[in-house]
UniProtKB/TrEMBL annotation, chain B:
EC number of this enzyme: 1.2.4.1
GO terms for MF: magnesium ion binding; pyruvate dehydrogenase (acetyl-transferring) activity
Protein name per its UniProtKB record: Pyruvate dehydrogenase E1 component beta subunit
SMART domains associated with the record: Transket_pyr
Pfam families: Transket_pyr, Transketolase_C
The keyword Oxidoreductase appears for this protein: yes
Signal peptide residue numbers: none
Residue intervals of the Transketolase-like pyrimidine-binding domain: 20-195
Enzyme class, spelled out: oxidoreductase
InterPro entries (UniProt xref): THDP-binding, Transketo_C/PFOR_II, Transketolase-like_Pyr-bd, Transketolase_C
Keywords: Oxidoreductase, Pyruvate, Thiamine pyrophosphate
Length: 397, 340
């Protein structure tokens, strides 16, 4: 893992603020963010790699399955770090790091069945991985070659949504459709899962989504990754009470899970999705986790958060604890770890190569797909644009 | 797009002409669309048991059930945002916004998601969504119940915006909008809801996104849509008594604009007056004026004139007669145009 200094913006204007004393508010926010997540926190694997039992959400996991989860997390972290590096090298305009949230995303992603539908926010690279979306497709958004390079229907993974909270309503409507289509009520039923952050919970659309889902019994799992910060605003700036408590006010279960524990995230997500498939949804899951890197590559967390906070969360790393457990259980040997490491290098090399070779879209594509059924006014504008460009053919322009 | 001049039904189908109010024509059109396609659902505040505050959805829930006519919680972003998900799922939702002034809580979903999903997904996701908005003034209502917000949506790529002005169009246009694979903002002239007209339910010859010449004249052209169409027709009749022959064109489609018939008419009359209730600044009326001067510069005998609502919030209802363009303001503009 690279050092914090490498992760933060290093512009001259940000240097003095980085050393300024934190406000009392920041200290409090930092302390709250690093507590153990409260008594209700569902945890199956401690930061020390000890397996603990939970009365409601325990699952059986085979050595092979756990190795699979480990591999997923290592590879998406490598994809994330590579994308971050590609941004630093000027190959991407922006990147939204996933670092620290691998367990929250892989746990949820691996709980999904093929028939389930996903509505992500913009940081769900790990869930995209579980939906077999080529990582380069995520990069194309941030390189500016496409708004959504994957087929959202085929992958059952909606386009990334940038406007905070919008997708929560869209997901709820989709889930209402699943119910109207009679796709709930048995284990082969369908469910929808919707991802958003702790900051998003302040948005009206999220509240409205909760209301609609409750009123229409929509089979939707609301999956809030509470990574403690909405850019520079701590969770305390969004809510006076733990976010999972809110579900009660809408009339459905809310569960807080250790978002750095992939087993717990898998178990709770499986349970919640089953509830939905069986027609008992919705469910709110608060995955209590931490954004280890900057909010985006344009952010400078040294201006608002304490390095101590980061140090505490490093000890809860989602990948390390699985590794320790695999070793303790003798479920994996050095060869396994080496091979995953080698595979991740390969994934990174491939990603780098594919990224720099992403073709620029054609200028004409600006005008494509604005409408399903065309628009003569727009078509005239496109024709004029093309004629203008054709005028330069062979010229010096 | 074919530019029809005068709408003359030509097909020989069974005559099924009924006299309906515009409200009943919309209701009948919605019913027909729901009968023809089980994926059509109606959703909004009070649209079920009550039949909507204007009764446009009257009786639909009784006949189609609560799953196809959804009395929703009270939140416009929720209505539109969940309709987006339903449309992705294969439904064809028709959302009712209770009054024009209440569309703004849903504005974010409309411009951020409804308008852009098809583009964002390179055409893989279609959003056949209709958002019905009773709009405009003249009913003596309180604040936020009389606005004309259509230009906000015409300004947004990815949306189509239409407005009906008479029962026949209301009946056909609502069905055509529901059939359309693009999201359509459907503006209904609420002060014309209870005016009657003939509706041939057997056929229409007018495509949705086209304007229509209602009256041919030689001296000046009037363009209007929605509630102002009737005002423009009355103005043309009054002008005829004074010896002036006016063309009247009902735009019907506000985005895309079908200005072919307007250009044709202006080339003949040399004069254009645009009549809308909406404020004039950065509006559809301004767009029409711009395009007409680009296309018909050498035919124009006078600058394009506009008769519109003022660039103020909609006033208290005691003042709306002053605010709304009426016969006299339209005729005054025609006189100014003719005087050039
Ligand atoms: C409606 C809206 N307002 C502001 C922004 C700018 N913005 C982008 S991310 C963000 C913080 C989001 O925090 P949170 O919901 O906790 O999600 P996180 O990024 O931490 O996962 C803000 C303010 C936005 N994208 N959309």
């Amino acid at each position: 893992m690279s050092s914090p200094e490498q992760w933060t913006g290093s512009g001259p204007e940000s240097a003095p603020a980085a050393t300024a004393a934190p406000t009392a508010e920041q200290v409090i926010a930092g302390l709250r963010a690093t507590d153990e997540g409260g008594a209700d926190l569902v945890q199956l694997l401690t930061p020390e790699g000890e397996r603990v039992r939970h009365p409601d959400f325990d699952i059986d996991i085979t050595p092979e399955e756990l190795r699979g989860l480990y591999r997923d997390m290592v590879l998406v972290r490598r994809v994330d770090r590579e994308a971050n590096a590609l941004q630093r090298k000027g190959q991407l305009g922006l990147w939204v790091p996933l670092l620290g949230q691998e367990a929250a995303q892989i746990g949820a992603g691996r709980a999904l069945k093929p028939q389930d539908q996903v509505f992500p926010s913009y940081r769900e690279h790990g869930v995209a991985w579980c939906r077999d979306i080529p990582p380069v497709d995520l990069l194309s958004i941030f390189r500016g070659t496409d708004n959504c390079a994957w087929d959202p229907i085929k992958h059952k993974f909606h386009p990334y949504t940038i406007v905070i909270g919008n997708q929560v309503l869209n997901a709820t409507g989709y889930a209402m459709g699943q119910r109207f289509d009679g796709k709930v009520g048995d284990p082969d039923g369908e469910a929808t899962i919707c991802f958003f952050g702790d900051g998003a919970t302040s948005q009206g659309d999220v509240h409205e989504g909760f209301v609609w889902a409750a009123v229409y019994d929509a089979p939707v799992v609301f999956y809030c990754q509470n990574n403690q910060w909405a850019i520079s605003e701590p969770t305390e700036r969004q809510s006076r009470l733990p976010l999972y408590h809110r579900a009660r006010g809408y009339g459905f279960p809310g569960i807080r899970v250790d978002g750095n524990d992939v087993l717990a995230c898998l178990a709770v997500s499986r349970w919640a999705l089953e509830e939905c498939r069986n027609g008992n949804g919705p469910v709110l899951i608060e995955a209590f986790t931490y954004r280890m890197d900057a909010h985006t590559t344009s952010d400078d967390p040294s201006r608002y958060r304490l390095s101590e906070e980061l140090e505490v969360w490093k000890l809860k790393d989602p990948i390390e604890r699985v590794k320790v457990h695999l070793v303790k259980q003798q479920w994996a040997d050095q060869d396994f770890f080496d091979s995953v490491e080698a595979e991740s290098e390969q994934v990174a090399i491939e990603l780098r190569d594919k990224c720099v070779n992403l073709p620029d879209p054609s200028a004409e594509s600006i005008f494509g797909n604005v409408y399903a059924e065309g628009n003569p006014v727009l078509e005239a504008q496109r024709d004029e644009f093309l004629a203008y460009h054709a005028g330069f053919a062979g010229g010096e322009h | 797009m074919a530019a029809p001049t005068v709408d003359r039904p030509t097909d020989a189908g069974p005559a099924a002409v009924r006299t309906l109010t515009l409200a009943k024509a919309l209701n009948t059109g919605l019913r027909t669309a729901m009968e023809n396609n089980p994926k059509v659902i109606v959703m909004g505040e009070d649209v079920g048991k009550l039949g909507g505050v204007f009764r446009i959805t009257d009786g639909l829930q009784k006949d189609f059930g609560e799953q196809r006519v959804l009395d929703t919680p009270l939140a416009e972003s929720g209505i539109i945002g969940t309709a987006v998900g339903l449309a992705i799922r294969g439904y064809r939702p028709v959302c009712e916004i209770q009054f024009d002034g209440f569309i703004f809580p849903g504005f974010d979903q409309i411009v951020s998601q409804v308008a852009k999903l098809h583009y964002r997904t390179s055409g893989r996701v279609k959003l056949p969504l209709v958002i019905r908005v009773p709009f405009g003034g003249g009913i003596g209502a309180v604040e936020h119940h009389s606005e004309s917000p259509e230009s906000y949506f015409a300004h947004t790529a990815g949306l189509k915006v239409v407005s009906c002005s008479n029962p026949s169009d209301a009946y056909w246009m609502i069905q055509q909008a529901i059939d359309c694979d693009d999201p359509v903002l459907f503006f209904e002239p609420k002060r014309r809801y209870y005016e009657k007209g003939e509706v041939d339910t057997a056929s229409t010859t007018t495509p949705l996104f086209s304007s229509r010449v209602l009256r041919e004249g030689t001296d000046a052209t009037l363009v209007a849509y929605g509630p102002m169409v009737r005002t423009a027709l009355e103005a043309a009749s009054a002008a005829a008594e004074e010896g002036h022959s006016l063309s009247v064109i009902d735009l019907r489609s506000l985005s895309p604009l079908d200005l072919g018939p307007v250009y044709e008419s202006v080339r003949r009359t040399g004069r254009l007056v645009v009549v809308t209730e909406a404020p004039s600044e950065s509006s559809i009326s301004g767009e029409i004026a711009t395009r007409v001067q680009q296309e018909c510069f050498y035919s124009l005998q006078a600058p394009v004139l506009r008769v519109t609502g003022f660039d103020t919030p909609y006033p208290p209802s005691k003042l709306e007669e002053e605010y709304l363009p009426d016969l006299d303001r339209v005729l005054h503009a025609v006189d100014r145009s003719l005087a050039f």
